């Protein structure tokens, strides 16, 4: 970099910190280059001279720290002492502020100490001695403590940032030797503060001291056997932050910001202590510390156990400490169930009770309380640990012990899943509502864990709560939230009760059918509809309850809850299709009425078509055409009108996609061949979908012609036809010729992903049918030839523009060669071009073409030995395949895609082992190939590793990944 003018540099810094983001972006690169230049060692000091602006001084300190972190090797050994003195002088200079600059200088000194521990072995001791004993003139005591604590706190963090993993292990052991001194120093300071009044400066330093302890524990480690004293001090500090503000008669009971920050820092540091990686090795000490937590903090949680409490932050941190302690020491706590030790048993009981109280925190999450969500993971952990116990006797004992606990929890969860009512929801934001939605899902999952413990007994509990709720509704008929929560709870455990003879579920079904929904919030109806859908497997075995379920779902179709109604009806028609036969016609009429009402959203109309298809499948063959006319007819009429008027507008595009989606959904579900004992009459009749398609195939062609440039319209049309093929399978045969004409017509105008997909589906389903084989062979040839035309017309540098089509093309061919390799053995298909474009796909930056190109080539190579023409194609192109694969691994493919190329090498090694050796050696002879960063010895080793690995795919992937790292010059980064 050219010589840096200090004035220009200062101007750039001011622009960077005081201007808009656009101007910042322009100066950022230049400033970064300046920071990395060797001149930065000089100008960093100049920028920190007195009289400079705060931004300039800060940039100077940041630059110094950056150089110390990344460019320590530029400092001559003989300059180390001078550098130390200059850093200390600057720290003293900025002792009176600005603190922003002083903080960065303290971190710079920490980085210097980390580098210098080898030759300045007493660095940490010297820092403590210098600043603790007030050896800096003209700097007050509190500021000297501030500086000392900043430096000490940053040492572990700088150690993590500066050194590679190899050096870090050695350095960490060296730094760990000073941990007792640092802990002793901070402990003594904090203990002294407990005896005095606190001002703002005192709060600042105490918080800093506690953070220092936490940082050393987290990054360096300090055995919990030595942490009892500091734990006691941190707990006392927390209590001293909390209780005075609570006990003030004229106060508001709220902790100040300083008190909150100090208490939170203390609790987070206690958390770091109790969850240290080796802490489970000291169960007795862990027991003592957890008991200390409970003895000291439970009164606070008790005081704050109320809705809209004043000091939620401290309670959140306390409960986090309790839950994390259990998770880290779960085996110790579980032994509290089976132990004969009353103290351990008492500890378990107290801790679990606290977590139960956390779960049951008054108020609705997250607006009125924010604690209860953190307890959900514990309830999974507890039952999981119990059921994972190897000793059966102990497992059964623990299981019996936790049953009452989970029974109590079930009631709590019903209560906590209550939604806000109409009066309180006004103060909720969209983020609050989303958080509550996720929270309810967590509750639903936790109900499942309760079921794992309680089994059918959970229904007794929920039924009892339901009875209580209904009784309460007699006095307060509009209080819907508890009833909704109770129904939601039943819904959460529905999957466990398919067809059992259980009295509670019939009671639930009766309640759902009797609720006066018109007098209550519509959310209650929404949950009821979802619950009916959840119990469809049970309804299949208990069909007498289907009529009231249908009545409820139809009611939902004509409400604001139509989304839930269409989902529930879809589940019912899918799971109970044959049981729905007696109700099919009236239900179809109800569905039709809802469709033409115009009140449903497009997505709900589309979903409803699935149920309509299932219900139509139940009708006598003679009745189906009439329903097709009145329900499906309007879809095709609108589509035909749009096509005839040549009306291409954004609105007609949306309507076209909507109508095609309705048809597509119907095609996926309308199938009169139910293949059950209770078969529908007239099964020999032609499938209704075929009748529709025979009449409407011209409309599909018109749609394709009109919207040929709109890929989403083509995709929707092809999806409709694909659903028909997949649904009807062999019954689709009469329409196959028309389908092929439709596909080829699109191919002749545009080769695109949707037509490739539908072609592949038809070929895979019908190729083995002798009557269709010739037609499918022609379709495959057309698929390949039209794709080639697209590839040939695309400029070499523009293949990324058709990456989606390339991806789907090779995905389709991979499926075909995997399932029908003989189909590709056709003289009309040029294997050399297939291979050429697959290699082209592998070199694109997009992940999709790389993946499918590799997959196709791998399967092509594996199948090729069975077909002489394919064998010759591989022999002709083999060296180019290997050359491209190695080049992709070495420098072209995104690094996360490198391992995928293992499939090509394994396939080649399996089918062409001798040739692979020759091809690899040949391509590796090229100088600077794949990059100049790998020498001949490394290339030779790579060839040996590739040739040797014939079976272990994972090991081969590792070899490729290692070679990619070397070829790309990333060795230092990934060492």
UniProtKB/TrEMBL annotation:
Listed InterPro entries: ARM-like, ARM-type_fold, Exportin-1/Importin-b-like, Importin-beta_N, Importin_beta-like_NTR, Importin_rep_1, Importin_rep_3
UniProt KW keywords: Nucleus, Repeat, Transport
CC annotations in GO: cytoplasm; nucleus
Chief place of localization: nucleus
UniProt KW Protein biosynthesis keyword: no
Subcellular location: Nucleus
SUPFAM superfamilies in the cross-refs: ARM repeat
Molecular functions per Gene Ontology: small GTPase binding
Occurrences of domain Importin N-terminal (ranges): 27-93
Record bears the keyword rRNA-binding: no
GO biological process: protein import into nucleus
Subunit record text: Interacts with UBC9, RAN, RBM8A, eIF-1A and PAX6.
Family from the record: Belongs to the importin beta family.
Protein name: Importin-13
């Amino acid at each position: 970099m050219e010589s840096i003018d200090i004035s220009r540099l200062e101007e750039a810094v001011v622009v960077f910190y005081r201007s808009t983001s656009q101007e910042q972006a322009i100066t950022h690169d230049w400033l970064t280059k300046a920071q990395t230049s060797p001149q930065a060692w000089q100008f960093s000091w100049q920028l920190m001279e007195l009289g400079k602006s705060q931004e300039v001084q800060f940039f100077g300190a940041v630059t110094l720290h950056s150089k110390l972190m990344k460019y320590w090797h530029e400092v001559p050994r003989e300059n180390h002492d001078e550098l130390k003195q200059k850093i200390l002088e600057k720290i003293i200079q900025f002792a009176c502020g600005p603190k922003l600059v002083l903080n960065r200088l303290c971190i710079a000194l920490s980085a210097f100490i980390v580098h210098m521990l080898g030759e300045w072995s007493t660095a940490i001791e010297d820092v403590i001695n210098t600043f603790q004993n007030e050896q800096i003139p003209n700097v007050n005591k509190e500021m000297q403590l501030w500086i000392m604590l900043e430096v000490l706190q940053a040492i572990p963090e700088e150690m993590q940032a500066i050194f590679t993993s190899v050096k870090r292990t050695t350095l960490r052991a060296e730094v760990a030797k000073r941990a007792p001194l640092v802990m002793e120093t901070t402990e003594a300071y904090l203990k002294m503060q407990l005896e005095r009044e606190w001002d703002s400066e005192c709060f600042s330093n105490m918080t800093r001291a506690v953070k220092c302890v936490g940082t050393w524990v987290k990054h360096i480690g300090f055995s919990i056997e030595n942490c009892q004293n500091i734990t006691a001090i941190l707990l006392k500090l927390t209590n001293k932050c909390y209780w005075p503000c609570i006990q003030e008669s004229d106060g508001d009971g709220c902790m100040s910001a300083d008190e909150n920050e100090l208490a939170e820092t203390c609790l987070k540091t206690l958390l770091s202590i109790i969850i240290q990686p080796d802490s489970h090795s000291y169960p007795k000490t862990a027991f003592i510390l957890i008991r200390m937590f409970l003895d000291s903090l439970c009164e606070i949680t008790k005081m704050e156990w109320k809705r809209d409490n004043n000091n939620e932050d401290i309670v959140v941190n306390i409960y986090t400490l309790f839950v994390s302690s259990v998770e880290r020491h779960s085996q110790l706590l579980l032994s509290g169930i089976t132990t004969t030790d009353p103290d351990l048993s008492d500890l378990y009981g107290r801790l679990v009770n606290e977590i139960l109280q956390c779960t049951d925190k008054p108020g609705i999450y997250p607006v009125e309380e924010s604690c209860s969500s953190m307890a959900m993971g514990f309830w999974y952990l507890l039952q999981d640990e119990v059921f994972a116990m190897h000793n059966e006797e102990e497992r059964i004992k623990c299981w019996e012990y936790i049953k009452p606990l989970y029974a109590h929890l079930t009631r709590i969860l019903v209560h906590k899943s209550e939604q806000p009512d109409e009066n309180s929801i006004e103060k909720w934001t969209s983020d609050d509502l989303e958080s509550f939605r996720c929270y309810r899902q967590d509750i639903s999952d936790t109900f499942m864990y309760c079921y794992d413990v309680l089994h059918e007994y959970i229904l007794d509990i929920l039924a009892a709560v339901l009875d209580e709720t209904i009784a309460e509704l007699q006095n307060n008929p509009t209080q819907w939230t508890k009833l909704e929560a109770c129904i939601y709870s039943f819904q959460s455990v529905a999957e466990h009760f398919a067809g059992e003879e259980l009295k509670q579920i019939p009671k639930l079904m009766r309640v759902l059918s009797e609720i006066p929904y018109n007098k209550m919030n519509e959310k209650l109806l929404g949950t009821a509809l979802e619950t009916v859908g959840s119990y469809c497997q049970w309804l299949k075995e208990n069909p007498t309850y289907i009529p009231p379920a249908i009545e409820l779902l139809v009611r939902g179709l004509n409400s604001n809850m139509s989304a839930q109604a269409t989902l529930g009806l879809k589940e019912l028609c899918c799971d109970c299709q044959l049981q729905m036969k007696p109700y099919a016609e009236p239900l179809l009429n109800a569905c039709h009425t809802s469709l033409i009402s115009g009140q449903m959203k497009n997505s709900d109309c589309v979903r409803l078509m699935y149920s309509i298809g299932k219900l139509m499948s139940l009708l006598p063959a003679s009745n189906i055409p009439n329903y097709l006319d009145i329900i499906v007819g309007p879809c095709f009429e609108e589509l035909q009108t749009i096509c005839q008027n040549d009306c291409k507008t954004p609105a007609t595009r949306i309507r076209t996609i909507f109508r095609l989606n309705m048809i597509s959904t119907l095609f996926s579900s309308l199938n009169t061949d139910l293949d059950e004992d209770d078969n529908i009459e007239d099964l020999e009749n032609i499938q209704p979908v075929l009748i529709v398609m025979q009449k409407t195939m011209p409309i599909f062609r018109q749609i394709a012609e009109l919207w040929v440039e709109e890929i989403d319209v083509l995709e929707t049309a092809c999806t409709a036809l694909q659903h028909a093929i997949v649904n009807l399978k062999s019954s689709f045969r009469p329409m196959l010729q028309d389908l092929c004409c439709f596909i080829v017509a699109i191919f002749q105008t545009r080769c695109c992903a949707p037509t490739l997909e539908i072609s592949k589906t038809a070929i895979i389903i019908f190729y083995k049918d002798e009557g269709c084989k010739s037609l499918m062979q022609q379709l495959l040839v057309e698929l390949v030839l039209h794709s080639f035309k697209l590839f040939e017309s695309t400029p070499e540098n523009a293949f990324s523009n058709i990456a989606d089509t390339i991806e789907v093309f090779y995905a389709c061919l991979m499926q075909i060669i995997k399932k029908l390799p003989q189909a590709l053995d056709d003289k009309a298909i040029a294997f050399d071009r297939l291979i050429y474009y697959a290699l082209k796909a592998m070199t694109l930056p997009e992940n999709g073409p790389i993946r499918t190109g590799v997959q196709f080539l791998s399967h092509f190579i594996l199948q090729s030995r069975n077909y002489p023409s394919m064998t010759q194609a591989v022999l002709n192109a083999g060296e180019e395949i290997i050359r491209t694969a190695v080049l992709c691994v070495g420098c072209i493919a995104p690094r996360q895609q490198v391992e995928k190329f293992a499939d090509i090498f394994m396939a080649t090694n399996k089918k062409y082992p001798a040739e692979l050796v020759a091809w690899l050696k040949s391509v590796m002879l090229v100088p600077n190939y794949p990059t100049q960063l790998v020498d001949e010895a490394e290339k030779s080793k790579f060839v040996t590793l590739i040739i040797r690995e014939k079976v272990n795919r994972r090991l081969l992937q590792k070899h490729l990944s290692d070679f990619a790292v070397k070829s790309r010059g990333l060795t230092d980064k990934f060492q």
